[in-house]
Structure formats: structure tokens, C-alpha cells
Specification:
Order of helices and strands: HEHHEHEHEHEEHEHHHEHEEEHH
CATH superfamily: Aldolase class I
CATH topology: TIM Barrel
CATH class: Alpha Beta
Largest sheet: 9 strands, parallel
Shape: globular
Radius of gyration: 17 Å
Number of domains: 1
């Protein structure tokens, strides 16, 4: 049995392993940014909750909700969990220490940061919160490895290009699992996954006034073999 002082570290490690394993089953995350109407409880046809329910029913597993310093953010997360119990919900855009207490209270499975912040990462780790750091440079990737991060987020991925991550293998010798995020579309999924990225994060442009992107729904409903033979475009 781990001691009390070891427990946050143990939770952090187990959640990291669990998320990596889950992404191996479905290498996709959808990132949403709820607006005021969403936070205030807008429901019904066309609402964010309704669209996320459709994605869940189509097979989506991972959803990140951008954190906001707003008193209705936590209630929205609770409603989302009640509405879509099959989704693995995490927090996105975590860059402030103030967010950590809220994440701990919600007991979210994971959170994402767009940047490398070792102080914030250490604070999250001490609380047992899995905060996946954003990395951009080889130096940041190496620092993440030395901190025990087995999963990182490459951001902004579209700026760096699809082949950037593979080029780091020779100089670094090892790389953690990686989520490509920032500026990517459904049509990029197969290319980026084939290039060695372990998962791809897509922004809210896959959800809009016209509903959920049909290409994303087809991707979710297709088998892995069908995706390889008929890439989404």
C-alpha cells in the first residue's frame, strides 16, 4: 500500500497510463469552448450538450472542455457528465493555478495545458491531477521526459508540420506519446496518425451552428480498416 504522501504521485501515474491506453483505443480528442449560453444551461436540439451527446452516441470517447474562470464552468462539467456518461471528460487550456482546485474538486481524469510550465505541472502532480503539458521545442520535450511525462501535447501542431515530430527521434533518442493539437481538421486525422502521432485533438470547428461535422461522424463510425482505405477529406 502506498503511503499518504505517495498517493498523489500514484494517482498521477495511473491516470497517465490510463489515458495513454484509452488513446490507443481511439486516438482522437474533441476540444470544446462553452460560451455563456452553454454555461447558463442551454439545452435541446443544436445545443453544445446535444451535439456532444450525438458524438458520444457515434462512438467518441475523449472530450476536453476549455477551462474558464467562471462560476458556471463546474456546473457545466457536471451536466455534461450526467448527459454523456460514456465520455471521458478532461479540461483544456489550463494555464492558471486557480484552475487546479476546481479540477481536483471535480476529480477529472485529465487536463491539458497549451504550454510547458514546470511549476504548474508540479503543483498538479502533487494533487494527483494529470496535467498533460504542451511542448513546442526539442528542449521542452526533453524537459517533459525528465519530469516523467509519458504523454505530451504538441502545440501548435499545424505550425510545426506533420513531419516535425518524426524528426525529433534521431536527436532525442526517445520521445513520449504525443497528442497533436492546434489548427488541425478532420481531414488531417489519418495523415497525422500515420506520421507517428499517437492522437489528434480537434477544435470546436467540428461543432457549429450547422451541427456536427459529417466527416467526423463518418470517421467515428468507420472501422480502422475503412479509415485507411477511405481517408476523410
Amino acid at each position: 500500500m502506498p503511503s499518504t504522501s505517495d498517493r498523489p504521485e500514484s494517482v498521477w501515474r495511473s491516470r497517465q497510463d490510463a489515458l495513454i491506453a484509452s488513446l490507443q483505443q481511439q486516438p482522437l480528442l474533441v476540444v470544446v469552448r462553452p460560451d455563456e449560453q452553454d454555461l447558463a444551461g442551454q439545452a435541446g436540439s443544436g445545443s453544445l450538450l446535444d451535439q456532444l451527446r450525438l458524438l458520444q452516441d457515434s462512438g467518441l470517447v475523449h472530450v476536453e472542455v476549455a477551462w474558464r474562470d467562471h462560476h458556471l464552468w463546474s456546473p457545466f462539467i457536471r451536466r455534461l457528465r450526467e448527459t454523456c456518461p460514456q465520455l471521458l471528460v478532461g479540461a483544456a487550456s489550463v494555464v492558471q493555478q486557480e484552475a487546479l482546485a476546481e479540477l481536483a474538486d471535480l476529480d477529472l481524469s485529465y487536463a491539458m495545458s497549451p504550454c510547458w510550465d514546470p511549476i504548474l505541472l508540479d503543483q498538479a502532480r502533487r494533487q494527483g491531477i494529470l496535467l498533460v503539458p504542451g511542448v513546442f521545442s526539442p528542449t521542452e520535450v526533453m524537459q517533459a521526459i525528465r519530469c516523467g511525462c509519458r504523454l505530451v501535447k504538441l502545440f501548435p501542431a499545424a505550425t510545426l508540420g506533420c513531419r516535425y515530430w518524426s524528426r525529433l527521434l534521431v536527436p532525442l533518442g526517445e520521445r513520449p506519446a504525443v497528442i497533436a493539437a492546434g489548427g488541425l481538421a478532420v481531414s488531417d486525422l489519418e495523415q497525422w496518425l500515420s506520421a507517428g502521432h499517437d492522437a489528434v485533438a480537434l477544435g470546436r470547428r467540428v461543432i457549429g451552428p450547422d451541427g456536427v461535422d459529417e466527416h467526423l461522424l463518418r470517421w467515428l463510425q468507420a472501422s480502422p480498416m475503412e479509415r485507411r482505405c477511405h481517408p476523410t477529406g
